[in-house]
Fold this protein.
Amino acid sequence: MKEQKETTKKKKGGKHVMNVLGGTFLVREKFTKQFFFMAYVTVLLMAIITNTYIAEEKNRELTKATKHLNDLQVEYIQVKSAIMEASKQSVLVKRLEGTGLKEATEPLKRINMNVEPEKKMVP
């Protein structure tokens, strides 16, 4: 009895495989009724897969841009520091010693001039 049931199960499984490999399942009524639904599901799956690939590519681009931005920020800080160091008064005095320019020791004076506005001549 058990042997007979096992052989019928094997035959059914083999029958299904032969239907798929042979393509006979494509002409059955159940398949033709559900074809458009299956096509719709297939298109949705393809859209989801495409969307995933596009999102991963955008994520890679964003990561690359973030790294580049961080590199530029580090470079900005280094250049700003170098400029601040080079523009110190003591550094400038040392660099200009041989040119004959000297540091001003007297404070600046303000010159005030009272200039009267010119009168317009009416013809």
Observations:
- Helices lie at 2-22, 29-86, 89-95.
- The chain has a mean pLDDT of 84.
- The first helix runs from residue 2 to 22.
- DSSP finds three helices and no strands in the chain.
